User: What shape does this take?
Amino acid sequence: MARTLFEKLWDTHVVREPEDQPALLYIDLHLVHEVTSPQAFEGLRVANRPVRRPDLTVATMDHNVPTTDRRFSISDPIGAKQLDMLRRNCLDFGIQLYDIDSADQGIVHVIGPELGLTQPGMTIVCGDSHTSTHGAFGTLAFGIGTSEVEHVLATQCLPQNKPHTMLVHVRGSLPPGVTAKDLALGIIGQIGTDGATGHAIEFAGEAVRELSMEARMTLCNMSIEAGARAGMIAPDETTFAYLYGRRFSPKAVAWTQALSYWETLQSDSDAAFDRTVELDAATLEPHVTWGTNPGMVVPVTGSVPDPAGAKSEADRRASERALHYMALAPRTRIQDIQIDRVFIGSCTNARIEDLRAAARVVKGYHTSDSVNAMVVPGSQAVKRAAESEGLDRIFLESGFEWREAGCSMCLGMNADILAPGERCASTSNRNFEGRQGRGGRTHLVSPMMAAAAAITGRFTDVREWKFK
Amino acid sequence: MTPFHSHTGLVAPLDRANVDTDQIIPKQFLKRIERTGFGEFLFHDWRFRQSGELDSSFVLNEPRYSGASILVAGKNFGCGSSREHAPWALADFGFRAIIAPSFADIFANNCLKNGLLPVVLKEEEVAVIMENARSLDEYELTIDLEQRRVTDDKNFSTSFVIDDFQRHCLMEGLDDIALTLLLADDIAAYERRRPVFMR
Assistant: This one.
């Protein structure tokens, strides 16, 4: 029977399907970070259970690490305790940890692919909703809670109910200045933040095939913002070229074997999806969110919608509430919205291509006097690569801050937060109330759009940018 | 996990859609390394003003909802971050069940691991409960997991759907890790079948 990519991944990982119970799936790679794991390790200790496969478990510190100079001790004692706990847990249970001073430290969803740990055909979990990022490689990757983290540590398996399948087919090509981030926001704007709840999405079509691996990661990263259980893209030559030669990629004979398996990882041409969504990439514009969830989004040429025109009473009230929080009037032109802060970073948009795209925009310009802007590379490796290309100089000379790697202001668990009322153009993934700091107002955009806003002090259509 | 059979309790209405886990438990409270003690930070930025004083206009701060153990909310409750701190905070605050037209997947999963029952009802049923919780004094519901029914002592009565296995685990308060460990032979057999290039 014809099967989708998701169904192939699922079938391959079913350890057992007990009657009247969820399927037991095997997990090939478990990524761990400091915030959602301490209670899981504690649970293991209480029950006297070992970690079944420490060799399939990899940890790093990203959520609450400072992004300023790390030669000094961490000033936040509670955050420091959480980092110490992760060190102790990894030591006690024999897990590889990329510590804060490691050359490989970084956001867990950036370093997994970078090190070649993320490979097609795998199941990957992490106590973080943006685990969907890894789906870019043709993996079944999804976020889990701490109880499930404990479950995987103890058993390397997870009981799961099978999600439905959804095909997001994107025809045409993305125009210049329009990125995978805009595509993701466009999709969420169309189907809503719960549009894919209970579904595993496969992104396909010409526009998706044309994306680089890093852009595919951006797209899959945002699947969770549409409510999806997972998002994935079938692996192809782009995927294989990216993986070749990475530290943990298969080598020699193993590479050849892996490759012949990876090539089978695509949906059969006559496979049926439970739902299909169609989009035309050619008509997409750069997007800017105006509200307090990623589905509240319009093209940069648009205006803040009037709640009076909402589809339902619930939507109208949600819009009014969002506009009140965001301190925006209905029908305000997006390009008239002034900003105070710019954050270029996060597991969505802090890879080298993102930084190159942003640097290209800011080169030869200086940030607006009213804007405080920062770049937080996704990993130490991204930071080094950027510095070797001179991108750090471009950002610094333009008035940006250049930081150490981590999640930073995407969720504001460290010192990088917005002050109440501050308005931020952010390349992250969530514009929820208070996400970047209590009272902070977040507008999600692509790295190029964030860079342009930093220079002009307001949202600016990057398609009309005069590059220097 | 506390077993859940049937629960009767006061209903608090949170008439908002897309309540995300950042609202349920803001990030500054995720640094604790225990599973307990999150209740006091539940809906922190809504319950407390910037100055730290209680915001009396927020529904959960109204004295009439003090002691509520059932929360009724809008669609897509629990969207966003996978933080299990969200159900920990709700349970620690005293909630045993949440009723909404829909829940985010990871959140619903996390609730089930903590004896907190997510009940999906039709939009119009949720609207009735929301209105009753607002207009009637001490409006209580009974959620019977065994019978899969939600009822009040007036004339509201409806059924809800929950997976048999999840229902069983909740009613028995089962440790599902122990259940999986019973399948250790199957897991070992699977591991022998794994391709060598996957380490």
